[in-house]
Description:
Blueprint lengths: L8 E7 L3 H11 L5 E4 L10 E5 H9 L3 H4 L3 E4 L1 E6 L10 E4 L9 E5 H14 L3 E4 L3 E6 L4 E5 L4 E9 L6 H5 L4 E17 L6 E7 L2 E8 L3 E8 L1 H8 L3 H11 L7 E3 L4 E10 L3 E2 L2 E3 L5 E2 L7 H21 L7 H30 L3 H16 L1 H12 L10
Parallel strand pairs: 1-2, 1-11, 2-8, 5-13, 11-19
Antiparallel strand pairs: 3-7, 4-7, 5-6, 9-10, 10-11, 12-15, 12-16, 12-17, 13-14, 14-15, 17-20, 18-19
Amino acid sequence: MSKSDQSTVQDIIVVGGGPSGRIAAIGLAQLGLSVSLVAPVSTGPDGRTTALWQQSISFLERIGVWEELSQSTAPLSKMRMIDDTGGLIRAPEVVFDSSELELSEFGFNILNDKLNAVLEKKCVSEQTLTVISDHAVSIETSSEHVQIKTASGESQRARLAVAADGRKSLLRDAAGIDVKTWTYPQVAVVLNVEHRLPHNSISTEFHTKTGPFTLVPLPGNMSSIVCVETAEGAASLCAMTPKALAVELERRAHSILGEFKLASDVKSFPLSGMNASRLVGERIALIGEAAHVFPPIGAQGLNLSLRDIMDLTAVVEGARLRNTDPGDRAMLQHYEKKRTRDITTRTNAVDILNRSLLTPFLPVQAARGLGLYVVDKIAPLRRFLMREGMEPASGFRRPG
């Protein structure tokens, strides 16, 4: 869309070039609406990975990207949790097996670079989606539309703006939406490794004194690693030579996958959390990390964002079928009501689990150990938690 089109009011503008923004733009455009995506061209490789659960995969199938994505994924059929805290009270090893739910796998793990490449390709080919490869620099809202200006001077107007522009969201700030932020005394060290032994589609999470140490399968004899450490511990790991780091990570993994060899650059990220006080403003809806941020624990991040997108898409589709404005207040309030409980419960669950690993307080350690013992011994509870982990509010619903 060019400057000469400034008088045109589209249905929706999505701002943000990450997976959340691109998936939202594709899904909304496929409703038959006029949609623009303001997203800068991705810069540099992203060696991180994303685990996608079945509910997310179903949505990616629906918008026509999963078939191509699936060729670059590794299945996750079992999830193993091991207490490696060395505390006085040690929790039992717990294994969540997808076969208990009559599923061949919980989901799949994929490199972010592969995910982003397929989504970018799909955005370009979507007929009712206009991609503007630029940064949004300002936004103005009114009772009738939102106007967004880009760094190159273009101006776009729409009845609804979707903020998928991350934790430092320009759109969220423009809407005057406050955020609650918090930090953890931890840093996540992330990288990918090759290993001698097969992972057999098992994801393993060691609970350590500094946080989770997680091995997640990738295609072939490869896994992604998220090692949560203190700031000093993370700095020490990042300063190691590749060979020394591989040996240290193998030691922390108790050699369950044999010898390690680094297969990507090493990156580190301080852990923090954020929740927006509201999910909507005047003609603005927040999704993804514009709305919520929490540590990379339990593979909940993008899956939670995809549920934002699924609910927003469903609400907008309802407005379209009723021939009503997709950005009106009632529609936005309906979206916010659908999302609030899910975001709150997921954020609290991840926060409690992470903090329980850090505390030396014996009763907390005992409570965590008892909880895992009960989960290990009571199959109906274990199946309930597996379903809830993949699909909130699924409860004790039988599979199939």
